[in-house]
Amino acid sequence: MVTDKRGRAKWTVSIPPDSDFPLEPKQYADICSQNMEVATHVADMYTRVHKEHAAHYGYYHVDKNFMDVAEAEAHGLLPGPKARTSMKASSLLGENLDGLVESDVCEKSMTFVLETQDAGLGNTLLMLWTAYGLAKKEGRAFFLDDSRWPPPRHEMLPCPHHARHLLVSAATAGHVFGGGFNGYYEDARKMEVYRQKPMFNFAREGYEALFQLANEDEEYVDKRIAEMRGKTVTPGDGKINGIVVGIHVRHGDRRPFEFQYKDSYIPLEKYVDTAKEILRETFNGSRLGNDGITEAASHSIMLLASDDPDVYASEELSEALPAQQQIRLASNKHISNPQPQGPTGMRNFVDEAVGWEGGFFAPMFWSLGRPNGLPPTAVTTPDVKVPPTDEALRLRELVGRAYLMDLAVLGQASDKIVCTVSSAGCRILAIMLGWDKSFDKAGFMNVDGTFDWRGISW
Fold this sequence. Notes:
About 35% of the residues lie in helices and about 10% in strands. The chain is of the alpha/beta class and about 450 residues long.
């Protein structure tokens, strides 16, 4: 709490300019939780009596008693921008060689910090893309790379939302993308998934602007997509081609929403039956003769991506083609019975003798490359704050690349998608498919109960 030159009580957030950046995720979460307390205290000073304040303000509520960092510095209430920092001179735009910030900064910004204790990549991608779309909506400059920051770092605040330079991370997702965000942006005039279209559009804008694979992966994905699309082409002129039905199967530590499967997984037969129903509906309604229908259907393919290596070898999905074969996860039984090496350039976990049993589990991910080996079970999570070894980083990179290439091929090659909406990867695929194909043309098929598409889990 501070007092301005006119003697009025205000509140602000003081982060010493020489603090390391970014702060710990918990520190950002603590700042947000303390915001409400100090804001309520200052408001009570004006009424001289304690009164009950709204439990939840509107998403764009502006607290007239909040003083942004730059304003507090201008009033001499916080150390000014001339304070020396611990940052290297080359790491900050506008910073001269003696470590002082001299040049102008952007008027408003949003900075997305990727650090998170969530081993999964899906929800972080959803937050990243949605944050980008939200920043554009609010007229904020958007920053991601933590090596160059136009705004002084101590002015980046996780709360309140109307701070000039807003910082967004997984630790503060509930404040940025929680009930207030949904309440403000949901389209109350619509029903079901159509209420979510504004949030979908934010994420789609972020996907279009930010989704870029590494060069060698991008080249492989482009070739793989062209190969898959080529398989659907029927010979001759004037005939329709087959279609690509993408199937995404998430196992591991992500359980379905549907109650009867909450302790297991959606049966694989359900994915296959849905895919085959899509094919029947697509071609039975065409104007082709029987021969044309049969030919188009025969040139249709099922494309599969899963975190569970055993799904690829399952009898139910034996007809499906893997989305990508550049990086493959292997189960223990495949390690015990190694298969012949694949195409040149293929890299997989067989070489490392790491079994990805049953799908993606967070403890398994955090334990990759650790000198003390893997955990005996997928229950106890290792200490995620221990600096990873070079080997751990290499293996984590492979997992991340495989995940992104799976999504890229499935999302860009498929005409229809079959998946479980409880999975972040499934919701991402809807964004990659686009609103028109996903919902207006019913190309997004959820097999996890009757739940609609949703965005970020917080």
